[in-house]
Amino acid sequence: MAPQEFKVRVNAFYGDNEIGLTFPDNWQVTECLMAGHDQPALSDEEMRQALQSPIGSPRLSELAKGKKQVCILFDDIPKPTPAYRIVPFVLEELHAGGITDDQIRFVCAPGTHRPLLFPELVAKLGRDIVERFPVYNHCIWENLVNVGTTSRGTPMWVNREFASCDLRLGIGSLFPHPHAGFGGGGKLVLPGIAGIETVNHHHKHSTENSALGRVDDNVFRLDIEEATRLAGLHFKVDSVLNNRREVVAMFAGDFVAEHRAGVEVARKTYVTDTVE
Predict the structure, then answer these.
(1) Coil, helix or strand for 245?
(2) For residue 48, what are the contacts with CB-CB under 8 A and spacing of at least 6?
(3) Torsion over CA of 82, 86, 91 and 92, rounded to 10 degrees?
(4) Over 70: is that where the pLDDT of 1 sits?
(5) Which pairing describes strands 70-74 and 167-173: parallel, antiparallel, or unpaired?
(6) Do 60 and 177 meet the contact criterion of CB atoms below 8 Å apart?
(7) What is the torsional sign of CA 100, 98, 250, 257?
(8) Full-prediction pTM beyond 0.90?
(9) pLDDT band at 3, cuts 50/70/90?
(10) CA distances to 94, 107, 119, 125, 267 from 131, in Å
(11) Pairwise CA distance, residues 76 & 123, whole Å
């Protein structure tokens, strides 16, 4: 009897290829796949329509009118978001609102992770974007401004480049998180572009009801969202992904409203039946 083999995807952003894991034929092996494992990716038009139908917010093209400087946040390499797939549609909306390329900059929001190297920025955003626009790494130690303190005492130090712009938006994705319930939403700001003092206080003092999949009464997330309001994130784009890191659903608009709508889809997409 031949050994059992199962395919596993590896090398995200650097090949996205498959390797085979083999097990002895006398083992009982069950492959547990999430419900949205092979869900089809959105088409260009479906992604465009998601951006043009924001939740709890005017269209990005409307928000862009009359603005002088735009900052686009994006998450780092450990996150699965295919930012290169989403950015062109965000730029379409900004251009429709009268924004020119020289008014736009990108800031990577790695939180306490290390900064991205050039090849990683290219893998995340695409070479065209990295060569056309200023792209910065956030640093938790410097170039920060204070924008207030949350009701739970978290001092909100935020990236200075982000704070200097009058239109501030972010691109991320939704997936289960052990403390915030689900990623996405305001997490791109805290911890994404916050200072070390902010992250330290938040992680120590906002732990009530923090749990995987728990959102609405989760103090860890609620403090993030209050801090993000202080920082002034105007617009957020979050995606739900399949096993190939393809966008299968996309939500845009107010960072809390779109997040809650996205979480409902994420719960159904990522749910996985397990065996006892």
Answers:
(1) coil
(2) 89, 92
(3) 160
(4) no
(5) parallel
(6) no
(7) positive
(8) yes
(9) confident
(10) 18, 14, 12, 10, 37
(11) 10
For residue 128, the one-letter residue type is: D
Number of residues assigned to the chain: 276
Residue partners of 43: CB distance under 8 A and separation at least 6: none
Q: How far apart are CA 115 and CA 124, in angstroms?
A: 13
DSSP H helical segments within the chain, as ranges? 44-51, 60-63, 83-96, 118-125, 127-132, 160-164, 196-205, 219-231, 257-270
Exposure string for 119-135, b = 16+ CB within 10 A, e = fewer? ebbbbbbbeebbeebeb
Distances (CA, A) of 110 to 107, 117, 158, 234: 9, 12, 13, 19
Give a three-class secondary structure readout of 192-227.
Answer: CCECHHHHHHHHHHCCCCCCCCCCCCCHHHHHHHHH
Instruction: Please tell me whether the peptide bond between 191 and the residue prior to it is cis, using omega within 30 degrees of 0.
Output: yes
pLDDT digits (tens, 9 = 90+) for 64-104: 999 999 999 999 999 999 999 999 999 999 999 999 999 99
CB 169 within 8 A of CB 235: yes
Task: For 216-259, write each residue's pLDDT tens digit.
Answer: 999 999 999 999 999 999 999 999 999 999 999 999 999 999 99
How many of the other CB atoms lie within 10 Å of CB of 181? 23
pLDDT in tens, 165-201: 999 999 999 999 999 999 999 999 999 999 999 999 9
Rounded to an integer, what distance in angstroms lies between the CA atom of residue 192 and that of residue 75? 7
Mean pLDDT over all residues of the chain? 96
